[in-house]
Amino acid sequence: MPLVAMKDMLDHAYRHRYAVGAFDLVSLDFLDAIVQAAEQSRAPVILSLAESHFDYFDFELAMPAVEAAARRASVPVAIHLDHGHSLESAVRGINLGCNGVMVDASHYPLDENIARSRKVVDMAHGCGVPVEGELGYIPGVEGEDAERHPGEIRYTTVEEARRYVEETGVDFLAVSIGTVHGRMRGEPKLDFDRLAEIDRALGIPLVIHGGTGLTDNQFRRLIEHGVTKINYYTALSDAAARRIAENGEQGVNSGYTGWVAGVRNAIATEVERCIRLWGSADRADAVLAKASPWDPVEHLIVYNVKGLDEAGVQAMMAEGRRVLSKIPGVREVFTGQAVKEDASYRYTWLVRFCHPAVIDSYRDHPEHVAFADRYFRPVASERISIDYRQVR
Ligand code: 13P
How far is the CA of 167 from the centre of ligand 1 (A)? Predict the structure, then answer.
């Protein structure tokens, strides 16, 4: 149950004026630490995976662990693709288990940002997945010194924000009001008046990127003006690195596990500090009472084939696995053959969807229609097809 719909989670935060932490993770230590801190403070939390970090870990390999951690948590958790740069990135993120995606086309001119974001929204909403867009430009690189990437901040304007949200249909908006990604010297200057105006104009959850380096008071004021999701990474990475350096100073000589000893606690301490500061501590039960569980749906077909030999059936299944698994919202395509020769139905398709919304979007998807009409329906007139949701 505790993997929940991210939109429900953030709507609760928006209504009650607190912010949920979206903590970027780059290893199992980060994953464990973030969930541990959320459990410790009974807070909803977002496990965030940034496309820019995919050089440091294998996204496809990490996602089953992230999903397992979310599902076994007792607090509400959502899984988010951070800074997805294309439609393909968003489809990949959703099909691997993200139940929220960010489309970051903020470096393009407004019209192009709108067009790109709109495509991601159309696809993701067909999968029941909410989308975060970004408007304006937030310079810097997570995990690095902000001064090394001094790009110009482009502030979000109210007029553009109104048009962007209306024309794209994004569910959450990342705004640029003075924060930068990465490690900062000094206190950034934030434009709270601009933020307040955007909040009044839009009335949807706002997102702040570049959480590292802001003061406690700045966080409080951001949240007062509609910020409901705070992205945070560099400070966690620094806490982990400091711990490793301390282990080094203490002369560890026990290999990798000795060097990284205590890293998890160092990260968890910083995550918990943020959770308490941002007001999400002790909100877990209230969110669980309101948020829909994020459960897959299974689309099951049992069928018999006429007019194809066994090799032909195997070829059809292989083509189906190849084509259908790329359709947005499809988590898995399992093709099966009856164990017993005398089974009433000899073959199965089991297609797992991330959300009930995919039942319709999959049925109408051109790749599915083409495959079904060309390969499957002509030979499988004898079939039963059902969509199942999980019963607990
Ligand atoms: P920081 O690394 O500055 O905390 O920013 C994180 C972020 O915005 C990820 O999207």
Answer: 27
